Amino acid sequence: MTAIEELQELFRQHRKPEQVEAMENYMKNNFQFLGLKTDSRRGLFTEWYKKHEPEIKLDFRSIAQLLFEMPYREFHYCGMEVLIKAIKKKYRKEDIHLIEFFLINQSWWDTVDVVAKYLLGGYLQAFPEEIPTVIERFSASDNLWLNRSAIIFQLSYKVNTDFDLLKAECYKHKDSKEFFIQKAIGWALRDYSRFNPEGVRTFVENTDLKPLSKREALRNLP
């Protein structure tokens, strides 16, 4: 039995059919679930990862993608977690294609936000010279989730956030009617307001943002 087959069997043994309907409804019925709640899934995943860590690290990119291509949402989460755990300090230039795969497939806020913050953000910290090319391409895409990722990828950068770039992305998408874009603008600005409150306030007051974006951006400011 391969590592992936063992994880499938582990999840099958612990699935909770009585929890499936509520979990699928919460995700707007975009995905199938096995009924494993977060704590249970993470516990099983951690146990599995420790057991197979040497094997996983030898081919973590392929394993992560295979998990992400499976039908159940719990495996998508595991695919992300495999990649996040194994790829630290091991990014390659070509990993942007795998990261983009994770952003445009099985797409919803629960996976996109994690991938954007930890994988896209980590990749662009490893290769900062790629920021202009990648972010311009994602920002200009017709794909909603690539646009959102271009806005929020700096969430883990904290004081090192490129505020000019963040403002440029917010301004570029300020007229979007998409809820997830308006929310992303507000979230990214609110997060950075911890480090530059007056800069964020000034930008918001002088930019014609959508009400949702403005409200979210200023929520933590007095």
Automatic annotation (TrEMBL):
Gene3D superfamilies: 1.25.10.90. It holds the Pfam family DNA_alkylation. Transmembrane segments: none annotated. InterPro entries: ARM-type_fold, DNA_alkylation. This is DNA alkylation repair protein. It comes from Flavobacterium stagni. The lineage of its organism: Bacteria, Pseudomonadati, Bacteroidota, Flavobacteriia, Flavobacteriales.
